[in-house]
């Protein structure tokens, strides 16, 4: 077994180390979500934590790690005889992003269950992680059905495996730790709220600290065992402090004053539900125990807020996580000082001393925690720097910009959009947009299983086995079932698609009010794509060329940032925009052939510049129709006189057209639009 990098040897990352240690002291805090750019020791710190966790007493021979002092009465390996136990290290179980459902929750032998009535159960990763750590790297890329299973287990502290009336239940209480790079997409809100704490990590910009990071990493790579030995004393000290804090935790007093501060803080920041209050209370208690105190102080409440609230304040995926520290201090001051606890901070506690030295004791707050990322919100155009317009469709007259170019304008408020979907039935990644054959959804038929049976079609299995009962020597009431009789249920659910936006940023779209509405519509569609688990891409065209503003990605907030900064002006090279989008789709099909595409062209339909621009645009559009690519045109034409050019473009694409007003889900202009109908007519 490889030697892990010592936890106390991690340079910097004080908030990350503190959050992990608090969960080691009190697993009831609810886990940690670590957000940050690649190469910032996220995975290294999480894997190093396992070595600091206290050893466990488990029932001998139990595959589900039952506590000998209070074994699970429903344990599949039970009932357990008292007295027989063994001590082993706490486990850290890694959940791969591409894991199957059976690997996560365990597999039940359906054939033996039907033929013999035996619950032959092979435990999964949730059973392995019981009373330990469940680590999910790139948790934001985890499939939705696995997320659902994690949510159920985290909420109930147990895992249930059910197959056609045969069920197995076992305890599954674990410390959930996830790491993610926000550039690759945001996390589903339900799972985000399940993480007790969140921290933002970034590489240091201090040269001396970066030098130390490289020095320690090279030393570890050259001699892992020797490097770990040099840090053994520090590791032992932190391990002992965790044990001491766990013993002290039940004695920590959470006074009424601290509770009022917690409640007032959660109310002031308008977090949803009551989970934030509970997590803050548990975190503040763990902070006091970690500092060796039996009273919770205001500084504990403050640090708990910095760790527990930033990810709970997001109202949509385009909001940057963070918390206003000035507002936090004002709230704590307003509701503080009414309890009988000592208001003076302990110099040896989380806020005192020299913090995170080599002993692995992170400083509690030095003003550089995750809350500072609040200032890193997505860029917005400043109206004061915008270029004046001569009127809708007129040439802009910018100050300090090239001729015919207008600086970016802000997007209008997003709204709920109508559903746009791809025709037919796909087999792409699970999502919520278009029909697809999936492992989850409504049952539509049965087939012979390919590989491991995951979803039994009971009626089809019985029908396959019934004609052979006499020749198999059936004598009792039970059904004699062979493996060849088993049938896999085929199911229909929803998939996520690639939604490629092709946005007209030319001068004909440059009127500020119109472009603001257009950006608001695209932003609304991006929000819809986030909720439906799509990949998104962004192509813009203006002047003489088209540019890929954002290659296909799962990060819709990255697309929103690019959209906000999109300038307008110049001619309308519609053909160039369509051809660029066609190239993007061609490359993406090679990377992800199972994911179907939906092209959303946002334009008024005009084409200018170059010889025969309208005819050239028509030929480019027919490329999409010939390949059967689903498309929809968002018609941005306005004014009393309409040329209907966007509708003509939609016909060339083999798709449909929808106006900005009709795009709203609450519009009375028509029913929910689906590109399937027009695509079939074009075919």
UniProtKB/TrEMBL annotation:
PROSITE patterns assigned to the protein according to its UniProt record, in alphabetical order: VWFA
Disordered: annotated segments: 333-448
CDD domains per the UniProt record, alphabetical: vWA_Magnesium_chelatase
Similarity comment: family membership: Belongs to the Mg-chelatase subunits D/I family.
Ranges of biased composition (kind: Low complexity): 387-407
InterPro entries (UniProt xref): AAA+_ATPase (IPR003593), BchD/ChlD_VWA (IPR041702), ChlI/MoxR_AAA_lid (IPR041628), Cob_chelat_sub_put (IPR012804), Mg-chelatase_DI-like (IPR052989), Mg_chelatse_chII-like_cat_dom (IPR000523), P-loop_NTPase (IPR027417), VWF_A (IPR002035)
PANTHER family: CHELATASE-RELATED, MG-PROTOPORPHYRIN IX CHELATASE
Keywords: ATP-binding, Ligase, Nucleotide-binding
Xref: Gene3D superfamilies: Magnesium chelatase subunit I, C-Terminal domain, P-loop containing nucleotide triphosphate hydrolases, von Willebrand factor, type A domain
Compositionally biased residues, Gly residues: 349-360
Organism: Streptomyces rishiriensis
Any one GO MF annotation of this record: magnesium chelatase activity
Domain annotation VWFA: ranges: 498-675
Name assigned to this protein: Mg-protoporphyrin IX chelatase
Start-end of Acidic residues biased regions: 333-347
């Amino acid at each position: 077994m490889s030697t892990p990098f010592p936890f106390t040897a991690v340079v910097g990352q004080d908030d990350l180390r503190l959050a992990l240690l608090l969960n080691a002291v009190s697993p009831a805090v609810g886990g940690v979500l670590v957000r940050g750019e690649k190469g910032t020791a996220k995975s290294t710190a999480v894997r190093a934590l396992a070595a600091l966790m206290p050893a466990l007493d488990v029932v001998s021979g139990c595959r589900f790690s039952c506590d000998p002092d209070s074994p699970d009465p429903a344990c599949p390996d039970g009932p357990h005889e008292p007295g027989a136990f063994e001590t082993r290290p706490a486990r850290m179980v890694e959940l791969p992003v591409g894991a199957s459902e059976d690997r996560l929750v365990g597999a039940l032998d359906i054939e033996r269950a039907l033929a013999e009535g035996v619950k032959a159960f092979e435990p999964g990763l949730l059973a392995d992680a019981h009373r330990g750590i469940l680590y999910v790297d790139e948790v934001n890329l985890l499939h939705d059905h696995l997320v659902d299973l994690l949510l159920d287990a985290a909420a109930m502290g147990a895992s249930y495996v059910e197959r056609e009336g045969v069920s197995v239940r076992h305890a599954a209480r674990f410390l959930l730790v996830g790491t993610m790079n926000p550039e690759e997409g945001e996390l589903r809100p339900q799972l985000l709220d399940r993480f007790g704490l969140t921290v933002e990590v970034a590489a240091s910009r201090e040269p001396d600290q970066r030098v130390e990071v490289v020095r320690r990493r090279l030393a570890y790579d050259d001699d892992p065992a020797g490097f770990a030995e040099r840090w053994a004393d520090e590791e032992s000290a932190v391990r002992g402090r965790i044990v001491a804090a766990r013993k002290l935790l039940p004695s920590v007093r959470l006074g009424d004053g601290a509770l009022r501060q917690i409640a007032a803080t959660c109310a002031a920041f308008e977090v949803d539900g009551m989970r934030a209050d509970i997590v803050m209370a548990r975190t503040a208690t763990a902070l006091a125990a970690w500092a060796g105190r039996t009273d919770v102080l205001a500084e504990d409440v403050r640090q708990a807020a910095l760790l527990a609230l930033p990810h709970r304040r997001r109202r949509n995926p385009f909001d940057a996580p963070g918390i206003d520290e000035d507002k936090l201090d004002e709230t704590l001051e307003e509701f503080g000082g009414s309890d009988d606890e000592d208001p003076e901070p302990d110099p040896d506690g989380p806020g005192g001393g020299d913090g995170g030295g080599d002993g692995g004791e992170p400083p509690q707050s030095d003003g550089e925690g995750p809350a500072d990322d609040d200032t890193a919100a997505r860029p917005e155009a400043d109206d004061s720097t915008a270029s004046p317009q001569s009127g809708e469709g007129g040439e802009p007259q910018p100050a300090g910009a090239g001729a015919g170019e207008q600086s970016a304008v802000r997007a209008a408020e997003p709204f709920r959009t109508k559903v746009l979907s791809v025709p037919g039935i796909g087999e792409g990644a699970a999502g919520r947009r278009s029909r697809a054959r999936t492992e989850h959804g409504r049952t539509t038929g049965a087939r012979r299983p390919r590989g491991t049976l995951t979803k039994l079609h009971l009626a089809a299995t019985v029908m396959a086995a019934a004609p052979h009962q006499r020749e198999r020597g059936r004598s009792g009431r039970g059904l004699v079932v062979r493996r060849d009789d088993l049938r896999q249920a085929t199911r229909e659910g929803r998939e996520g698609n690639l939604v490629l936006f092709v946005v007209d940023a030319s001068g004909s779209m440059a009127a500020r009010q119109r472009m603001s509405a257009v950006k608001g519509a695209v932003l609304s569609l991006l929000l819809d794509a986030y909720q439906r688990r799509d990949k998104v891409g962004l192509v813009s065209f203006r002047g003489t060329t088209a540019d890929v503003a954002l290659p296909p990605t799962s990060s819709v907030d990255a697309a929103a940032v690019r959209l906000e900064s999109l300038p307008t002006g110049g001619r309308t090279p519609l053909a160039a925009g369509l051809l660029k989008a066609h190239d993007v789709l061609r490359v993406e099909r090679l990377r992800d052939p199972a994911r179907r595409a939906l092209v959303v062209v946002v334009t008024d339909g005009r084409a200018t510049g170059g010889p025969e621009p309208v005819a050239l645009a028509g030929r480019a559009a027919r490329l999409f129709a010939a390949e059967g690519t689903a498309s929809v045109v968002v018609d941005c034409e306005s004014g009393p006189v309409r040329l209907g050019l966007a509708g003509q473009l939609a016909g060339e694409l083999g798709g449909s057209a929808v106006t900005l007003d009709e795009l709203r889900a609450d519009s009375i202009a028509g029913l929910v639009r689906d590109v399937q109908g027009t695509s079939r007519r074009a075919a």
